[in-house]
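[job 4417] fold queue: 2 targets
>>> target A
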Amino acid sequence: VQGGAPRMRGLGSGYTLILLNGEPAPPGFQYDQLDPAQIERIEISRAPTADQSAQAVAGSINIILKQAPRSLQRQLRAGLSYRAVRPTVGFSYAQGERIGDWSYNLPISFFQWRGLNRTLLERGLIEEPSLDQLGVGASSLQQGSQQVWGHGVNLSPQLRWRPGSEQEFSAQGFFQRGQWNNSLAYLNQPVFAGNPDGMGLGAASGSPLVAYLEPDQRFAGGWTNANAQLRWERRLGDDRKLELRASARQSEGDFDGSNSYGRRAFGGNKDRNLTQGARLAFGLGESHAASLGWDLEWRERHEFRTVTVNGLPQLLDFEGFPFDARISRQALFVQDEWEIDAQWTTYIGMRHERISLRAEGVGLGQGSTSSVTTPVWHVQRKLDSKGKDMLRLSLSRSYKAPEPWQIIPRPTVSNLFSDLNRANIETSPDRVGNPSLRPELASGLDLALERYLPSGGVISVGGFYRQVDQLVRNLTRLRTVDWSPVPRFVSMPENIAQANSYGLELEVKGAVGELLPGIANPRLPIQLRAALNYYRSDVRGIPGPDNRLDGQQPWSALLGMDHRLAGLPFSYGFQYTVNPAYRTTQSALQFSQTGRVTSFDAYGLWRIDRASSLRLSVSNLSAADRLSLNGFSSGDYLATRAYGQRQYQLGYERRL
């Protein structure tokens, strides 16, 4: 996890596919808003399979919601959390049982959050477009104080019916509703000519100039996610099974807010998603099975927004008019799984998908259609008769389709430069979608050697390689646009080039006595976990040496421990992670820098009795700051320091 989002192979940004019960998670979904009582298990796949979406370039994380239990179960959780201003509360309750052929599970949870984010912004302007002279430097410093707060509720009921041993029907729902608030205020310092000390962050020197400062702002809004999944399974003999499934999802969001420059924005979006799929599995002999099927998906995003400046519409041709994006996908797949002998297992699959993209708006109707064939081959070799040592090899093809919001060509004007008769600057561009975007295509190789320890631990070392074609990147360029009489800097996603990524990953976890024989007492109830990852990538056509994929750090490390005190109802643990500082060259004219990121989390657990427990945890105990910078070859830059904060949580759990 980095920046609050799960990632694999050092990649987020959509390269890691997040699934909820096997279906893509709804827009804006955050895994930490789910209560642990709602989660049955989490499945991690480092390479795609033919029967699931091939949109998993780095891998997939599938969150399986709680299944209906075999007997009556009731669980209550309550929590108190503090990060800033005042404490927040959360609670959850889950009940499930089996009654004859029917079983159900009904988890519900309520959550709150409140935070105070303090930042320091520094903006450097070397070639300021409003000045008649070049090479005049300027810098502004702003101390930002952002309060964020909100609340929400989750409901994920499940109903299962088994009228015999030959068939099963299940219905799974997921509903989420919430409200959010965001209030941001700045303490501005004067703008100076000359060369400031910069993100050292010392004092600037020189004479005052006109400031380009971020405005104070206040926004509020809400969101709703509703999802229903139906599944029917039926056995058609001893070695055949038919599975039919369908789902419908709707996500809505709205917002309303204004800033201190007289700009008000209000509107919302609605996302609809329909899927239908089928799978027929059948045997081909002893330890040999195959399956085939199809997946159909239809997605639509309806976006509407109105922006006014001092009460007047900002973009006469766009305000109040809706923009739509539609994505449809049809897929056929076939796969073969064969346990050749006691040592060798192989999996071969093929998936063919047809993807259609279309964006519509004011005077616009543009779309594209493409097809992707994704073969997959996995081989597993047991190196000993007990299967303790295992070698895995995977060859795969995958892709990453654009998100609906990436292809909507509605412009968003810079907060700092709402006067469309003037030019803006590189560090404060307008933004717009690109209806001509094409899917990114990736070819992959994965190799891993694993050793499983008697107590359940594992030692794993693996390597991977990915070649990504038609890479998408947000590029800021000076462009001639329809919404301004003068050229303006605009950030827009574009397919740019081919990229390559490779790395090594080492993971160790297990009992301390097994991992450190002869050093640690094998009876110590201590579990250790550690990971060390090395990543490299390069994008062709962009000058090096830092022409890496966006957000992929050069390396990362993790060390954690869990200790259960012998003879006492107490346990504790910690986890420390570190990611180094690195620079990313995004184009010949644009780059970004990310500072070193460390995190130290700790917890203590008291098992009061067999049915209840109390847990205290602290996140980001080191309260380390985070630095980032976006810069351009002209010398213009925007640097941000986000001051670190600790978060405390106290939780009580009881099984009723």
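>>> target B
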Amino acid sequence: MATVREKAEALNLSAFQSPAQRPPGFSVAQKPFGATYVWSSIINTLQTQVEVKKRRHHLKRHNDCFVGSEAVDVIFSHLMQNKYFGDVDIPRAKVVRVCQALMDYKVFEAVPTKVFRKDKKPTFEDSSCSLYRFTTIPNQDSQLGKENKLCSPSGYADVLFKSSDMRSASLEDLWENLSLKPANSPHVNISATLSPHVINEVWQEETIGRLLQLIDLPLLDSLLKRQEMIPKVTQPKRQPDLVNNRNYLDRGILKAYSDSQEDEWLSSAIDCLEYLPDQMVVDISRNFPEQPDRIDLVKELLFDAISKYYSSREPLLNHLSDVHNGIAELLVNGKTEIALEATQLFLKLLDSQNREEFRRLLYFMAVAAHPSEFKLQQESDNRMVVKRIFSKAIVHNKNLSKGKTDLLVLFLMDHQKDVFKIPGTLHKIVSVKLMDIQKGRDPNRDTGYIYCQRIDRSDYSDRTRKTTKDELLNLLKNIDEDSKLSTKEKKKLLGQFYKCHPDVFIEYFGD
């Protein structure tokens, strides 16, 4: 362990806090170089997650483009998940201003640029009709310019903070000074007139509404009272400061070792350790291999500790069992896209702490399950080992068969990069409803969901007769074409059908 401690001392890691132990008001941007880190993270997320492809605009096709609304969705989702500024509300309008700032500093440009006059500043539009393309950083080395490659996120961040008007300002200062007025409309700032409670209620209401549209739930009580059913995470007992300092040091040492290896497996495992009790982390530190280069022994130690912890605690998704059944049923029927959106909505209903813990665990599971990674058990496939060990840590639903449980867990692992995104449909519906509330209009005038439509009595009667007749004809066809029925059985069924519905029988067989 001495080698690892030396690395930790070299990095000046005397204390290290986990997300669950951070003091109130903690912000990544308050840390040294935090602003550069957050901007780099935003740019990297945008570059890797937004859909870039050939698109049509004004009867012309443009290569390697993305639309403005999708860029806002990606950044909005990234900020909501990572909570760089703590539990603060981030309106969509402010994300639009972030996109405007990125465009001002040439991270991307509008397409086609000829629609803008040279003396007019391009304006970012949160629209599915506005096209944008990533650019290279000006004044980079000539080789980069010749190859026309995208600059790295850190390169963009350097340019952002080398400019005179940003050099002395932190990211939070810039964030605070960004105008909340949307770039392409005179709308009033929603958060200035609506309380966080109202905004959260709208998000919850619309999330549940969309979920009900995708999944047929027999009872709504568990869904509407979800907050009462979410298991509370037991907080560790407060220890003396000396013990806390030792725990922080152990966590810092493990983090330093992970950073020095540049191994995705180790990095994801160390992130999960931040939710483990202090004593387990101390035990890991004490049992750390004497040869730090024996990465296989390190991974075995970490995997055993993580699996032991999650096998003895309440499942992270042990609520809303009817939703589990609904998503599993969608998967069984091959409706993967609908199941993905339903999962995104379901996870949106989690509180922020459980959501983040589950995100880290699922990421670790996905990495550890890869066949090219460290072999967890010699006689079994990594994917099956991870599924078997962590299934009960995710969901333990007595009403869900083992087959459907396995299918659900494997689906979550395979789509771990997508399940925590917020659906664009939900973004749009919430934005419209909040704007209606802010302007004093009826927020329910257009909910975005259509469950039924009023029709007159005669139309209802006509549709009833037509639907009944169509189903009877379909039933008669099935009887007539069923090769498994004997001649005697078929004759008997056809006779019964003719006795009850002679008109349909005659229409099908003729006179």
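[job 4417] complete. Note on B: Residues 198-231+314-414 form one domain.
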